[in-house]
Amino acid sequence: MVEMEGSKPIYTQIAEWLENQILNGHFQPHDKVHSQYTLADMFNINPATAAKGLNMLYDEQVLYNKRGLGKFVTDDAVSTIREKRKNDTLTRMLRDVVTEATHLRIDDEELMDMLKHMIDEQRGEKA
């Protein structure tokens, strides 16, 4: 979903929307994705903004260009998107945990023990 008044830039939302379309199987490897003009019409945005979202996915090697034909989904787009999101989400969450632990003056050993305990719980192992 693209929210024109959300906190994320619209081109980022366009890129995430296309990523979700790829993850959900709407676009398969080597399928042509919507052009910047189609995306602009769909979301009532400037074509340059849509192009910026498409170029973001091109830079991340989720899409590739065929000269004169448009942008297409790469072979490993799904794994690229999953890996990027895993790294982005985990990094952001761990940064928040470390920041909060620092504010609470929890030392490294106690934090690592807490993390190990949670991992063991999630995996059904006894701590």
UniProtKB/TrEMBL annotation:
<dbReference type="Pfam" id="PF00392">
    <property type="entry name" value="GntR"/>
</dbReference>
<dbReference type="InterPro" id="IPR000524">
    <property type="entry name" value="Tscrpt_reg_HTH_GntR"/>
</dbReference>
<dbReference type="InterPro" id="IPR036388">
    <property type="entry name" value="WH-like_DNA-bd_sf"/>
</dbReference>
<dbReference type="GO" id="GO:0003700">
    <property type="term" value="F:DNA-binding transcription factor activity"/>
</dbReference>
<dbReference type="InterPro" id="IPR036390">
    <property type="entry name" value="WH_DNA-bd_sf"/>
</dbReference>
<keyword id="KW-0238">DNA-binding</keyword>
<feature type="domain" description="HTH gntR-type">
    <location>
        <begin position="8"/>
        <end position="76"/>
    </location>
</feature>
<keyword id="KW-0805">Transcription regulation</keyword>
<protein>
    <submittedName>
        <fullName>GntR family transcriptional regulator</fullName>
    </submittedName>
</protein>
<keyword id="KW-0804">Transcription</keyword>
<dbReference type="GO" id="GO:0003677">
    <property type="term" value="F:DNA binding"/>
</dbReference>
